[in-house]
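call fold(seq) -> tokens
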Amino acid sequence: MSVRVRLTRVGSKKNPIWRVVVSDQRSPRDGRFIETIGHYNPQTEPSTIVIDEERFQHWVSRGAQPTNTVKQLVKAHSKGLAGGSSTGSAGVSQAPAAVAEPEAEEAPDDIVEARAEAPDDDADADAE
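ret:
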């Protein structure tokens, strides 16, 4: 019996919430499982990740293979994110920090004056 630590989908239509479960590899995605060790909600901002790391280590030490997504979730959860939260979808990326938009720099006064003094060639072409 090959045991996996993987996600199983719960929640309603277009509202996915995932449970982190230990199950037999041959069981269907939302089918029979051995134990629930956590959950993941990508709908919240930031996404909520709750995993019982003690039980996760227990199963991994006994040969359970975590899926790539579960590995990423455990890694994000173990980074010590406040409240066990992270953001992202299955890829689980960190929440982008508030990106400060660079403010438009004003042109130096001497350049502004030079532009003002330059003759407008387009105006002369229109007059002809």
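The chain has a mean pLDDT of 78.
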